[in-house]
C-alpha cells in the first residue's frame, strides 16, 4: 500500500487505522524513506506503543487527540493515571472517557436515581459550569472539544496532493491452482507456475539449497534459520527437510519461517502433494498435512522431528507481516511469482524489510535474475552475484549480507547457550515456561511450595476470544490456542471416551453464545454477527450459528445463537500442570521463595529460612499476583507499579443429578458451562474484586448464585433445581488493566523474564509464554508478531 502511495508522490498522506496497522504503515514509510510534507496517522499514534516503537522517528507525525496537550490539567491527569494504573494513558480516549464518567457520576448524584431517562435529562440540561472533583480531591482535566491534535504545530506549506488510506483487516484469500499444460501447478490469479517444469525438488536443490551453501553452512550449528517468501505448496520446505535429515552433521535444530499471502486449504494442498511428492518424502508430507493450521492471518508454529524442526507459517501479505517478524535469518529463499506477475513480492520496500532480519553472514538465493531484484538486494547491504540458473535458465541470483540487519543482530544478541533456568511458580504459567525451556535443552528448576495452584480445579475450557474488531486480545488468544494445540497434541483426545487417564484435554468444540451484557439489543447482536462474518475466518475454525444450530451442537437448548469454534478444548488444569512439569529436564523444588539474589553464576532463590534452594543463569517470575512483591523484595526493578492485582474467582460444581442437563461441548458466553467429567459438571466463573488478597479465595454462596445465573442464561430450558449446599473451587487470578498478560524480558534486569497476569486466560497464554521466552533465549523465530510482543511486554508501561 505504501509503495503505491509513494509512487503517487503526494504532499499529504493520511491513514486511519488501529495500532497494528498504524505501526505497519509507519514502519513501511520509514523503510521506503517516504517522507511527505504532512503525514497524519490515527488512531494508533495516540498510544504510548507508537512512541516506544519509533522513538525520535515519531516526531513530526500528526495524529488526532481529544485534549489540549499542553494543558496543566492534562499533564496532571497523565501523572495520576501513570501512578494509579502503572502505565501511560493514550492521548485519544482515556481522558475523554474519564471526564465522561465524571459527568455521569455527577448527573446520577444530582438526579438522585439510576433511572436512565432522568439521568439523561440531567446531563442534557447541565450548565457549562459543572465541575467534577476526582476521588483524590484534585480537579480533573478539562476536556477541550475543539482541541487540536497533539502533534499539529504548524500549517504545512505548499501541500497540493493528498493520499487518504483506510488500513483495515484483510481476510485471507486461499490459493487455488490448476494444472498447466506440463501438469505443473499454475496460479490463475498471478498467471504463473508454482515451479519449473523440470521439477520442483530439483529446482529447490539447485536454486535454494545449493544457492545458500547448504548443507555445509548449517553444520556444527545449534540453530539454523531460513526465511522464505512464498510457501506455495511447501515443496521447497519438504526438499529442505529431506536435505537436513540426510546430513549426519546437520544443525541440532532447523527453523523455517515462510510467508504466504494465499495459503492453500488442507484439502487442496493434500490433492497436489499426492501427485508431486516422491515416496521417500511421503511421511514428511503427511506430517505437514496433519499439522496444517486453519487459514487464519498471523503466525502459526508447527513442530516436527520431536521439536528439532520448526516451521512458522506467516499468513498474510508480505509487506504487512515481514516488518513484524522477530528472527535472525541465516538463509533466504526468495521464491515469489515472477516480478512481472507479482511485483509486490520483489519491491524495494519488501527487500529492505527482509534485510532487517538478516544475521551477519546471511545468504540469499532466488531463481530470479532481473536487474531490479539484484539492485534492490545490493541497496540494502547484500553482496550480489550471478550463478548459472536451473534447467537451462542462464542466470540465477545469490547474495550475502556480511553485516546483518538491525533486527537480526538484536535477536542474536539475546541468544544464550542452554544452561540452568530458575522458574518461580508451578502453576500453568510456570509449568508452561519450564516445559518449553526444557524442550530446548535447558535444565529447569521450578520452585513453589506445592502443586496446589489447581488442586480441586476439576475442569476448565480453552476457547479463543472472538471480536469483530479483531483486537489485540483476540489475536493473542488465537495465537495462544494454536500453540496450545500444537504443544499439547500428544495428550489431546478427540472425545471424552478416548484416552481416559492419559488425556489432559478433549477437543469437543465450543458454542460461543453471543454475550448479552455487550449485545443487549437485536441491532447490536446483528452488528456483532456482521463484524465476525466480515473477518472471513474459515468455517473449520469459526462458523456463525443460530439458536437451533447451537442446540444441535450442544445437545441441549441454548439461550441464543452465536458462533461455533470446533477447536474449543475441555481441559483438566491439574493434569495439564503435572504433565508439563514431568517433562525431561524439569526438576521440581518444593519451597516458598522469600527473595532472589543475583551473583556471578546467575540467580539464587532463598526460602523463608534464608536457605538457598535453587538457582539458574536465567530467572523467570511466574508466581501470579505475587510476582511484583517478589521482584521488589529481590531489588529487581518492577515497571508495572501497583497495576498487578490479585482477583478472586470461583467455579460451581454441578452434582450428578444435574448431569443430564449438561451440554456435550463447551458452552460459553456470559460465563460458561462444561460437559460432565467424572460424573459432575462445571459452571463458571466469577470475578470477585471485594475479597482482599492474602487470604484463601473463598467459594461463597453469592459466587455460586452468580454462576447459576450464567448457567440459566446459557441453558435456559434445563431444570436447575435449588440445592442447599453447592460445592465448588475458588482461586486467585493475576490481572492487569486491559486484561493483557505480562510476558517477556524485564527491562533493565539482564536475564530476568516474567510470565504473569494471565487473568482468566491462563490456558490460552500457557504455551504461548513458554514459546516466546524460549525463542528469546535461543535467538530463534518468535511465535507471535512484534506488535503483539510489545502489547504484552512487561516494559510497556516503562516505555522500554
TrEMBL record:
SUPFAM superfamilies named in the record: FAD/NAD(P)-binding domain, Periplasmic binding protein-like I
Domain FAD dependent oxidoreductase: 421-774
Keywords recorded for this protein, A-Z: Cytoplasm, FAD, Flavoprotein, Methyltransferase, Multifunctional enzyme, Oxidoreductase, S-adenosyl-L-methionine, Transferase, tRNA processing
Catalytic activity: 5-aminomethyl-2-thiouridine(34) in tRNA + S-adenosyl-L-methionine = 5-methylaminomethyl-2-thiouridine(34) in tRNA + S-adenosyl-L-homocysteine + H(+)
EC number: 2.1.1.61, 1.5.-.-
Residue stretches making up the MnmC-like methyltransferase domain: 284-401
Domain of life: Bacteria
GO cellular component annotations of the record: cytoplasm
Ranges where the record places region FAD-dependent cmnm(5)s(2)U34 oxidoreductase: 424-800
tRNA (mnm(5)s(2)U34)-methyltransferase, as annotated region: 1-402
Co-factor(s): FAD
GO biological process, one term: tRNA wobble base modification
MF term (GO), any: tRNA (5-methylaminomethyl-2-thiouridylate)(34)-methyltransferase activity
Pfam families tied to this protein: DAO, Methyltransf_30
Subcellular location field: Cytoplasm
Family the entry assigns: In the C-terminal section; belongs to the DAO family. In the N-terminal section; belongs to the methyltransferase superfamily. tRNA (mnm(5)s(2)U34)-methyltransferase family.
NCBIfam families: tRNA_MNMC2
Role according to the record: Catalyzes the last two steps in the biosynthesis of 5-methylaminomethyl-2-thiouridine (mnm(5)s(2)U) at the wobble position (U34) in tRNA. Catalyzes the FAD-dependent demodification of cmnm(5)s(2)U34 to nm(5)s(2)U34, followed by the transfer of a methyl group from S-adenosyl-L-methionine to nm(5)s(2)U34, to form mnm(5)s(2)U34.
Name of protein: tRNA 5-methylaminomethyl-2-thiouridine biosynthesis bifunctional protein MnmC
Gene name of the record: mnmD
